[in-house]
Design a protein that fits this description.
This protein is mostly helical. The protein has one domain. It is about 60% helix and about 0% strand. It has 10 helices and 2 strands, in the order βαααααααααβα. Helix 2 packs parallel to helix 10, helix 4 crosses helix 8 and helix 5 runs antiparallel to helix 6. The longest helix has 21 residues. The radius of gyration is 17 Å and the shape is globular.
Amino acid sequence: MIRCPVSMSNSRNGEGFGSGGLGLMVLAAGPRRGRPQAESGKSHVSLFGGSQSDFLERVSESRNAMQWVACVTMLLDHIGHIYELPILRCAGRIAMPYYCMLFVLTGKKQSYDLLRLGILAAVSQPFYGMIFEFDRLNIIAGFFVFALLIDAMNKKLLRRSIACLLVMLIVPVDYGHFLYLSLFALWYVGPMAYVLLNVVFAVACGLLVQLVGCFAWYIPKLNMPRIPVVVYRWYYPLHLFVIAFIASG
């Protein structure tokens, strides 16, 4: 049975919203040249329409703004979880799809750094458990498993690929199977597939607030500085540590 996004549950009473996304990936390569001049005057980028390469190019062009929005909305989401503020949990629905898009962009441009992902997942897990629950893995672990699968498939390693798929099916992770299906949708199809998936899961699981995530596909074209590489990579475990420390006090 496919799990609903389990991170949409509050660890205190089993109700609520999700735990947001992660800050981990350094994105390669800047925006390509040659985009149509008609887009230069727009205040946002729509990810609908066009090919998979168009989608990835638009994400690449807007990655600085996406990183900032993802980090801020994830922080608001986790603060909302600690202090039980539903409005902040709604804002956090933007973080997960943005991080997924950035993660897919990274893997399409270069090979994933599996060692770094594994370390980040391991470091984050204790703090994630303190804030949410220890019965499932944090979202970086989910990205790590997906990256292992992509690496195994690229190398045509059948047994490793099957092992990764079994882990995805059996081992609970933040956002449940919804996380993996979202990554597959973005990796192989594009944003429209994710939006349809998002709607189906939101309705089927009775988590209508998850529909807020559909608005992530209109990216603000803001002239924002890029977050330093080290800060972006370690933002997820560090912000979990700070929140866990505050919550324990």
